[in-house]
Amino acid sequence: MPGASEIAASLCRTPLLSIAELQTQLDGDRAAHGIYAWWLVNPEALPGVPTTPHPSEPVGLLYIGIGPGAAGSSRTLRARVRDHARDTGRSTLRRALASFLYEQHEWRPYFTDRPLLAPSHEEALTAWVQRNLRVQWVRLPEPWVVEADMIALMRPPAEQGTQPRAPLLRRGRRVPQALP
Q1: 163 close to 169: Cβ distance less than 8 angstroms
Q2: How far apart are alpha carbons 54 and 13 in whole angstroms?
């Protein structure tokens, strides 16, 4: 397996991919395992949100993820990217983005066992992601082995535990209701 600095360099390689480009690549290898990095290409789209600068492009790192998440998991890299593309209930990245954006866009989250957005707001967040984020990935047979090291090395701000204390991300028991 490559070392952390080699993986980090690969996650920074350009050109960065749109979601559609990555999904096309993964459609060709539905069982792929790997690690991916989401980059903000328009800093004005998330004012006041810090990102980790890219070494050569005017973009900032927001999030690092893996697929599958653990040995024995059936959630492939392709499935995880699909979650990030359209399902806030299954995506920590989308929940983080929603926590930064919901007031500005007047999205009304609600709660089941996790925070969710109404279908029209999911569509709006999907459009926002398509406009403002790009992604890069590295094929790894056991990405869970390097995930913590990559997060420590690259320091993406939207990782669990480093997100703002926004109401959409509050932990604990949730009552199904809209936020005030």
Answers
A1: yes
A2: 10
What is the Cα–Cα distance from 129 to 124, expressed in whole angstroms?
9
> Token pair of 168, please?
């959409």
Low-confidence winner among 8-22, 30-44, 92-106, 132-146 (lowest mean pLDDT)? 92-106
Cα–Cα distance measured from residue 87 to residue 92, given in angstroms and rounded to the nearest whole number: 10
- Give the pLDDT of residue 49: 86
Domain extents in the chain: 4-163
Those residues whose C-beta lies under 8 Å from the C-beta of residue 12, and which sit 6 or more positions away, are 37, 54, 55, 56, 136
DSSP 17: B
Residue 63 CA to chain centroid, in angstroms? Answer: 5
What type of residue sits at position 22? L
50 and 157 in contact (C-beta within 8 Å)?
A: yes
